[in-house]
Structure formats: C-alpha cells, structure tokens
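Cross-check.
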Amino acid sequence: DMEFIDLNEVWENFKPYLKTHSIFPIIETLGGGAICIGFEGEKKGAIFYFDFDFGCFYLEKDFDVFQKLLV
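Predicted model, tokenized:
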C-alpha cells in the first residue's frame, strides 16, 4: 500500500537545511538524503540531490527531462 505524507511536515523537517538553497524535497532517498526541486530564482523547477553530509548537488534543470531519465 502507498503511504501518503504531509508535505508541511516534510518541509518543517528539512527547512533548516534546504531553505537557504531554495529547494524543496520531493523524494526521500536511502540514507536520509532527498531529491529536491528548486522553488525560486534560477533554481525554480530544477532538480537537485541534497545530502546532509555533502550538501546540495545539481542534477537537471527540467523536471520532465529528469523524470524521463528515471524510466
């Protein structure tokens, strides 16, 4: 069964780490990292990987392209 989560709760958990990067978590990864989407400025709509130990990494500028790379 698919489990739904409260996005406000997710944002509150990640906010101290991600707000300065202008990214919002959309997929949690193994090890507690997250695939994120940019929400303002040049980062808006771009996809990033955030790791608590190593920081924020750019993956792709377009969500649709990123999604196609997954399948």
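Residues 7-18 form the longest helix (12 residues). DSSP finds two helices and four strands in the chain. Passed to J.P. for a second look.
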